[in-house]
Amino acid sequence: MKFISTRGQTEPKSFTEAVAIGLAPDGGLFLPETLPDISGQLAKWEKLGYADLCFEFLRLFATDIEPTVLRGLIQKSYATFSVPEIAPLKQLDERTYVLELFHGPTLAFKDFALQLLGNLYEHQCAQSGLGINVLGATSGDTGAAAIHGLFGKPKTAIFILYPDGRVSPLQERQMTCTGAANVHAIAIDGSFDDAQRVLKEIFGDQAFSAQHHLSAVNSINLARILAQCVYYLSAWLRLPAADRPSVEFVVPTGNFGNVLAGWLLSRMGVPVAGFKVATNRNDILHRLFTTGEYRTGDVHASLAPSMDIQVASNFERFLYYTVDGDAAKVRAIMAQLKATGAHHFAHFNQFNFTSSRATDAEITAIIRRVHEKSGYIVDPHTACAFKDLNPARISVVLATAHPAKFPAAIRAAIGQEPTHPALEALKPRPVVKHRLPANAAAIKAFIGQHAV
Ligand SMILES: *Cc1c(COP(=O)(O)O)cnc(C)c1O
Questions:
Q1: Which of 2, 124, 185, 293 is most exposed, with minimal Cβ within 10 Å?
Q2: Which CATH number fits domain 86-104+223-422: 3.40.50.1100, 3.50.50.60, 3.50.30.80, 1.20.120.80?
């Protein structure tokens, strides 16, 4: 299996190459050259546990990794989860299920992809004999999940930049209390945008970047999307057979990576009724799916901070399919978006997507209502997905974070704070962070001292 760029100006790559490169050299995102049809395998896969199912699925794509090696990497990735089901499917009422994606080490769904990506990087280092220095900027969940995907790994260091004082105290603890010597949490004196600007500048210095084998943790790596397909597949296989075709997956959405994975899976021959993109007040995707217009706006802080985005970086992958794989059209639309911040789709093929938007007040009300009705506590991101569930369908709501990560928002809604042992365990540990100014020279000097 080869992987092509959405912009059509990159030679097709193997799985390992595409994962190592991340972003295609032509500026596009990698996609499988063709999507396999897995409809004939589904009955056979019904009884498999999570890691085995993941192996059967990923081996269709990672064809350049020895199967026994791939199986080992996958088993190691999901052994860090705290429940044997890995992604438990819980039924709330006759028509509503919750797919719990928060049982990984940092209690958010990003662990599904970043545990695996960490092990894939480790494998590549072992093969090449070279070390790797991973660099990223975060406003919260991605940084924590990336750190936990890489901490303690040989010949690897990870440097995560975040805005000092502007991530939640628990998120900061997840990044700074690991006790691992190869983790460097850098609290910069500035905003998240400053962190990203510094990061761009450092990667722009190609001599520095090559000298230290710098690699970016980014939200667009192909391996992340493919790893995320598996929990949709697992949920579908665990539903009663009669419910499967009428299922709608309802997905709290920011960069469009999570829901895109589910939609790609459906295009591989897994029949479902649809996908619902649930946004918070940052509703660029809700506006797209209701009006056909994609227009970037200002980012507003919300109770669901991991969905506070103004451009959905994985949107380009969906765009590729809406223009029937015409890479020239993708390039033209992306150029227009870059120049004007907007594109209107005259004949928008939205496939089987619908959408919703929840304000902060609605998020709070939903957390309260779901708790009163079912005794179940949803985090503020997951709460967005409970807005206007379609009664004509079986809804599978993706629970993207554990409520204990957002104690203040939960207390405001139901008067109590959920806890989690993994978070309690962090509280007595020392916070180890490096405060640095938001300039590339200072960060580069730090990386120069600590790189492997
Ligand atoms: C990252 C994140 C999201 C958004 O996921 P996308 O793949 O960016 O759409 C939603 N909820 C939580 C808790 C997250 O960490």
A1: 293
A2: 3.40.50.1100
